[in-house]
# Entry
Amino acid sequence: EAFLLSEFDKAMRLFKLLSILLSLCCGYVVGKECTNIPTQLSSHTFRYELLTSNNDTWKQEMFSHYHLIPTDDSAWSNLLPRKMLKEEDEHKWSMMYRKLKSSDEFNQQGGFLKEVLLQDVRLDPGSKHGQAQQTNLEYLLMLNVDSLVWSFRKTAGLPTPGEPYKGWEDPNCELRGHFVGHYMSASAQMWASTNNYTLQRKMSAVVSALSECQNKMGTGYLSAFPSEQFDRFEAIKPVWAPYYTIHKILAGLLDQHILANNKQALRMATWMVDYFYNRVQNVIAEYSIERHWLSLNEETGGMNDILYRLYTVTKNPKHLLIAHLFDKPCFLGVLAMKADDISGFHANTHIPIVIGSQMRYEITGESLYRVSDSNLYQHQYQLHPSGNSK
Ligand SMILES: *[C@@H]1O[C@H](CO)[C@@H](O)[C@H](O)[C@H]1NC(C)=O
Ligand SMILES: *[C@@H]1O[C@H](CO)[C@@H](O)[C@H](O)[C@H]1NC(C)=O
# Structure
C-alpha cells in the first residue's frame, strides 16, 4: 500500500500542476466541469416530465448541454493506468490487496466507535420511538410482494400477477425498482429490530421473487428496467440515473444478508456485481477510462459505498477494484486537495460519493479519502431545486 500511496501522491501533485496550467491557459477555475451542474434537469419533477414526453426535439435540446466535456477530468484520468481491469493486471491488484487485507494496521485504523448490533437494541413500545417503529412495521407489512416485484418480472419476461405500484415505481418511470431496494433494506432493519416473523416471510418472498427474475435473465443483471438504460448511460445519452437504482438494490440485498442472514441475497448481489464489472470493463476496453469517468457525471448514487461494503463481506479484490472505479476522481480529487470551492455541486449526486470515500478510508486507511480531513464541512452544498437533497 506504500506503493499505492506514493504513486497516488505523485499523481495528485501532477494533477494539481496540470489544473493550475489549465486554468492559466483557459482563464477559468477548473473543477466545475465535473458535476451535474444544477439546471432545470436537477428537478426530479421536471426530469420526469421530460423523460415521459414524446417530444424528442425537446429532449435532445435539454440534454445537449447536460454532459459537459471535462477538462480537469481528462487531465486527471490520463494519469491513471490505462490498462486497468485487463486480465494481466488483476494479479497485481490481488497482490496489493492481499497485503492490505491481512494487515492488522488497517483493522485498527482510526479507533472507530464500535457498532452496537441492531439485533441487540429494543425500543420501549410505549415511547414515541417505539410507536414510530410500530407504524413503520405496519407500513412495511402493508406492501404487497406482487406489486413490489411487478416491473422486475415484466423485465425478466415472467408472468406479472397483481398491479404495479405508481409514483417512483410506475412502469414508465426510469427509476423504477429503487423503492424495492429501499424495501429490502428497511425490512431487514425492521426484522433485526423486532424479529417479526410475518415481516420476515414477506421480505424473503421479495428476495426469492427477485432471484427468479435474475435466474430467468441469466446474466446476473437484476433490475426493474431493461439493461438498455445502461447502453444509453455508457453512450452518454439521455437516461435517468440507472446506477442510482442499482445501488439501492445492491444495498437492499446486502442488508438482507448482513441483518437477516439471507445467503441467497449475497449470492444475488455478487452475481449482479459480476455483471456490472464486465460492463465497466467493456467500456474501458472498447473506449477508454475517460469515457467511463465521463459517464459518472450522471448520478450513480452510492455505488462506491455499497461496493466497498460488499468487499468487507467477500474480501474479493475485484469488488475493491470496481468500488474504486465508482469513486468520482474529478470530484474526490478536488475534495482531497482542498484546492477548490466545491460549492455548487449537486448534493444528491455527491454526498453519497463522499460517504463512499469515508468507507474507502475505513477499509484501506488511505488518508486522502478521510472525509473529516477534507474541506467538505467548510462549504455549503447547493440544494436540489426540488428540495429533496438535504
Ligand atoms: C417540442 O419541443 C420544442 C422545443 O422545446 C418546441 O419548440 C415544440 O413546440 C415542441 N413540440 C410539441 C409538439 O410540443
Ligand atoms: C408482526 O407485526 C404485526 C403488526 O404489529 C402483527 O400483527 C403480527 O402478529 C406480527 N407477527 C408475528 C409473527 O409476531
